[in-house]
UniProtKB/TrEMBL annotation:
<comment type="function">
    <text>Part of the ABC transporter complex HmuTUV involved in hemin import. Responsible for energy coupling to the transport system.</text>
</comment>
<feature type="domain" description="ABC transporter">
    <location>
        <begin position="7"/>
        <end position="242"/>
    </location>
</feature>
<dbReference type="Pfam" id="PF00005">
    <property type="entry name" value="ABC_tran"/>
</dbReference>
<keyword id="KW-0067">ATP-binding</keyword>
<dbReference type="InterPro" id="IPR027417">
    <property type="entry name" value="P-loop_NTPase"/>
</dbReference>
<protein>
    <submittedName>
        <fullName>Iron complex transport system ATP-binding protein</fullName>
    </submittedName>
</protein>
<dbReference type="GO" id="GO:0016887">
    <property type="term" value="F:ATP hydrolysis activity"/>
</dbReference>
<keyword id="KW-0813">Transport</keyword>
<dbReference type="GO" id="GO:0005524">
    <property type="term" value="F:ATP binding"/>
</dbReference>
<dbReference type="InterPro" id="IPR003593">
    <property type="entry name" value="AAA+_ATPase"/>
</dbReference>
<keyword id="KW-0547">Nucleotide-binding</keyword>
<dbReference type="InterPro" id="IPR017871">
    <property type="entry name" value="ABC_transporter-like_CS"/>
</dbReference>
<dbReference type="InterPro" id="IPR003439">
    <property type="entry name" value="ABC_transporter-like_ATP-bd"/>
</dbReference>
<keyword id="KW-1278">Translocase</keyword>
<comment type="similarity">
    <text>Belongs to the ABC transporter superfamily.</text>
</comment>
Length: 257
């Protein structure tokens, strides 16, 4: 990690009509850094990701990408910097998996330009990186949830972003693919990308994160390096489960995670 943060949240308040979800959130994300966002259902993780993507306006405070609010970036310029892997993705048309990944190139080639050989190669390379090149010509809507998830990660990579925002990227994946995605996140950090991902699995955060941010009822409960932050006491407070219940489960997690 180095230099100025690519992305910053400053005293952020955000939410929906008549319903402020996030309160006083501060976060900085730098090059080569992986930050995991953890919190129970409804704690505001997706709201936070949507706000920093410029899909929801802040109620108060600021979001800055390279010092500039998302609303002041053109969508194409923003997409050249920030790749997004959404939680669920429904498409109405019978696009192939390769088409979906090629859409990730739109911010670089222009929405109505014909993709070049390089764009197609890049799309195939991203599918191959995620181990799903064999799905390239399959119709996206016929893929399983996990296969779709891997295609969406490939699409975000095809944008060649400097920041990757992932909403529960391992949620519908089998054990092997979860590990593959985590390894991939690790590799992206090595390439200098900044990754912000939400997860319901603290052991995943322990495995890949440089920092974790624990979000409870829209407020930061704790933030810091995973090992000292993901304590039994913090996990118990975060998920509302007694320490006596979480303690043995957390202590018994596999040593490799
Ligand atoms: N479009 C919306 N309009 C109004 N309230 C919403 C909307 N989307 C989410 N909320 C509410 O905002 C709160 C935070 O939701 P959010 O989706 O950010 O939580 P989350 O931490 O991502 O949850 P999960 O782990 O279940 O995905 C919840 O109370 C939710 O009901």
């Amino acid at each position: 990690m180095s230099g100025e943060p690519l992305l910053r949240l400053l005293e952020l308040e955000a939410g929906y009509a008549g319903h402020t979800v996030l309160h006083g959130i501060d976060l900085a994300l730098s090059r080569g850094e992986v930050v995991c966002l953890l919190g129970p259902n409804g704690s505001g993780k997706t709201t936070l990701l949507r706000t920093l993507l410029g899909l929801l306006p802040p109620r108060a405070g600021r979001v800055e990408l390279l010092g500039v609010a998302p609303a002041r970036w053109s969508r194409a310029a923003f997409a050249r910097h920030v790749g997004h892997v959404p939680q669920a993705h429904e498409v109405q048309f019978a696009f192939s998996a390769e088409d979906i990944v090629l859409m990730g190139r739109a911010s670089r080639v222009g929405l109505f330009s014909t993709p070049s050989r390089h764009d197609r190669d890049m799309a195939m390379q991203c599918l191959a990186t995620l181990g799903v090149a064999h799905l390239a010509s399959r119709v996206y809507t016929t893929l399983s949830g996990g296969e779709r998830q891997l295609v969406l990660i490939a699409r975000a990579l095809a944008q060649e972003p400097s920041i990757l925002v992932m909403d529960e990227p391992t949620a519908s994946l089998d054990f092997g693919n979860q590990l593959r995605v985590l390894e991939h996140v690790d590799r992206l950090r090595g390439l200098g990308l900044a990754v912000l991902m939400s997860t319901h699995q603290p052991e995943h955060a322990l495995r890949v994160a440089d920092r974790v941010l624990l979000l409870a009822q829209g407020r930061v409960l704790a933030e810091g390096p995973p090992e000292p932050t993901l304590t039994v006491a913090n996990l118990a407070a975060l998920y509302g489960v007694p320490e006596a219940v979480i303690g043995p489960v957390w202590a018994a997690r596999p040593p490799s995670t």
